[in-house]
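User:
Note these tokens:
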Amino acid sequence: MTHPRIAPGSVLGIVGGGQLGRMIALAAANHGLKVHVYAPDADSPAFDVAARTTCAAYDDEAALAAFAAAVDVVTYEFENIPRATAEVLARHAPLHPNADALATTQDRLSEKAFINGLGIPTAPFQPVDTPDDLARALDAIGLPAVLKTRRFGYDGKGQRIIREPGEGDRNAIFAEFGGAPLILEGFVPFEREVSVVAARAADGSFAAFDLCENEHRNHILAFTRVPAQGVSPETAQEAIRIARSIADALDYVGVLAVEMFLVREGGERLVVNEIAPRVHNSGHWTIEGALTSQFEQHVRAVCGWPLGSPARVGGLPCEMENLIGDQVEAWRAILGEPGAHLHLYGKGEARPGRKMGHVTRLKG
């Protein structure tokens, strides 16, 4: 489908109503766009800031078609919507990123095969569909290794580390995942985790934010710091080259994040962990820390507008801290902290492990 002219006053459709959709909607409103959010949950945070909402299931074809017919362009805020949903939407409106990019990146097996096909290194991996497959995969990859669901896992969910030979019965381990298709990945001896958040437009133009360093606690991103420390300029440029190669190969339009491991064994090098086909938690610092936020950049890309500058404001280092669970109760103290920029997502219950907001601090 050809891309129509998207101008201020047009309607941007966002599929998914979480905090990422909320922040995309806010960026879109700043540029005169109206936003229509489609999500299945009535308490979706993005609904609070949208001009129009549709609360319906992702497999409701009639509701999807009506939604897509009412907007000028569609994007999505997370990768766990079904491919069938994306294909329905694409029949009625321009969809960015495209359904093939979504399908490639929402399955860890197809994603790693795709990345390796570009000549980019990942952890060694094997598909696991039966307990016998698990035994063969462990023999091929060795230990330690990480067994993961191929789809829907995030923030440490849907995975298990296997460290020692004979650690548990393979039938019991396989059963823990409820019969879901799995992938076994070799353990990567990384020094730190880094990511590139970047945007690609339909005309092939590309803009990447500086390489970020990410600190996880209990499998959830706790801090992002930019620029990444202890990384050579050559490696930082290689990370951006990798991200561009991936975006070009997917014919990607929008913001994506490529998460990588920095490895020292055998010299400083990068190993790609995964691709997120969307705006990303490790890019939240860009709201205050970059000349163009990742959310504005995404809006620009999917609307066919020129990409903005990804440079850091004043070249200053920046830190983003996630507020997880009851950490959000510190909101008053954070508001009183000079130079801190607080973002709350409008969620109700502060459950353990739930991302409630974030704080950005420029380090001048």
Q: What stands out?
A: The longest strand covers residues 190-200.
